[in-house]
Design brief:
The chain has a domain at 29-120. The chain is 78% helix and 0% strand. The protein has 5 helices and no strands. The protein starts with a helix and ends in a 14-residue tail after the last helix.
Length: 134
Amino acid sequence: MKRLLMICGLLFSVITFAQAQQDGGRKMKSPEERAQKNAENLTKKLSLNDDQKTKATAIFLEQANAVNKAREAGSGDKDARRAEMKKLSDETDAKISALLTEDQKKTYETIKAERKDKMKRGGRGDGEKPAGNQ
């Protein structure tokens, strides 16, 4: 009986430790890092020129700073926070679209549609639910 309890306790601690390791590895990136990453992704997908990339980085930095301020304000109302984030996202999309050529705008609209579809499916590109939510 003691042996069984010891095995159960050991198994429980291993599972708990493994889950803690999965979540502990993620660190919030700085606004500058997020802006740079977003601009680089957009540059790859839309073949932005240097001027467009510089302007896109500034737009994404402005958005990242605004998102941080909204998070720090920490309004308890989830719907209000969601509406604020949507507003910021829409403003950013409009500013980015203004930088683009007509061909780039078409591609950007396709990217936005794919992103929206991915979010509807739960954030995963393959349409499956994450392993822990079954």
